[in-house]
Design brief:
alpha+beta, D-amino Acid Aminotransferase, Chain A, domain 1, Dna Ligase, domain 1, 6-stranded antiparallel beta sheet, 10 helices
Length: 327
């Protein structure tokens, strides 16, 4: 008998359009012989099931069900394709856990931790995971530009602490640009992380739970046409994403070891995609994404393809892992 799968997409953040694309790719590629897929749009003003004709039916949030033509539909598993809040920061995970509905993402604690760049890096540092020098600011703090520059140097990156898809990120080359970059970041979040510029090869690496094993996917090298891997570079073709990465076997082994270690330290489940920059041969972690892009052009599906894993296999495995975990 087919499993009912709700594919949740959208979200409350600037990333909602990308999430809708990811969710629709999952919908298109899930094996119809095994799964009855339902598109579910999650927005602040509405949670709705959207049928093939675009007709919306409200989700009953009491038990995450939907009634269509007088028939109540419940879901065997939720495929989480929401980038940003509330799908990537722990809220949906906690809600679904309370309802005892299996889902393809990590646990609520892991989601909340990794979505908070500052906290995630702080947890990993004692384990020897290398990161850039950083400086933290909260909304309302006094901005000491000299202290910031003394700590992280120039150029540096000003980032919204809890945001994705490079929203709220600015590369700052001189002191006069710092305040505007801080203002941009505060539009996305009330916490900021300012990091030193790391000059080296940037790579993206997917680590997933595949057939019960922690699996490191082939590595992607990021070569941005812009000043850094920003929104345009990620989504508007302003970068080269080269899989497998043009790095030495030694570098490949090292970053794979670190990425697997991070996955296991954090007790992750499901998909992750992390970015690293090599400095003097050592990978330095930038961030961990627990709901990476899942369009056909996205990095993690590219890596899966290189590993010989098709999109139906990739998405179906995520569901089967979730069901097994909750059985």
């Amino acid at each position: 008998m087919k499993k009912n799968i709700a594919i949740i997409m959208g979200g409350y953040s600037s990333e909602y359009e990308i999430s809708l694309k990811s969710g629709n790719v999952v919908f298109d590629y899930l094996d119809p012989a095994k799964y009855q897929a339902y598109r579910v749009h999650i927005f602040e003003q509405k949670w709705v099931y959207v049928d093939d004709d675009g007709v919306e039916t409200s989700i009953d949030r009491n038990d995450f069900s939907v009634t269509v033509d007088g028939k109540k539909i419940t879901f065997d598993c939720v495929f989480n394709a929401i980038h940003g809040t509330p799908g990537e920061d722990g809220y949906m995970q906690a809600y679904l856990d309370l309802l005892k509905i299996p889902h393809t993402s990590c646990g609520f604690y892991q989601a909340a931790l990794t979505f908070n760049k500052r906290d995630c890096l702080s947890v990993l540092k004692p384990y020897g995971i290398k990161t850039a020098e950083s400086y933290y600011i909260n909304l309302g703090d006094i901005i000491d530009e000299d202290a910031i520059i003394q700590k992280v140097g120039l150029p540096c990156f000003v980032k919204a602490n809890r945001a994705g898809s490079s929203f709220g990120i600015t590369k700052v080359h001189k002191k006069e640009e710092l305040q505007n970059a801080i203002d941009v970041a505060f539009k996305e979040d009330d916490e900021i992380i300012i990091e030193a510029f790391l000059d080296g090869t940037e790579v993206s690496i997917g680590v997933i739970s595949y057939k019960g094993e922690t699996t490191v996917l082939p590595i992607t090298e990021i070569v941005s046409e812009n000043d850094f891997f920003d929104y345009e570079a990620k989504y508007l073709g302003k970068s080269q994403e080269i899989t497998p990465a043009r790095i030495s076997e030694e570098m490949r082994t090292r970053v794979s070891e670190v990425a697997k270690k991070v996955y296991e330290i954090l007790k992750m489940e499901g998909f992750t995609r992390s970015e690293y920059i090599f400095v003097d041969g050592e990978p330095h972690l930038l961030e961990v994404n627990t709901i990476p892009g899942l369009t056909t052009e996205s990095i993690l599906p590219q890596q899966a393809h290189e590993a010989g894993v098709s999109l139906p296999e990739l998405f179906g495995n995520a569901i089967e892992e979730a069901l097994k975990k909750n059985s």
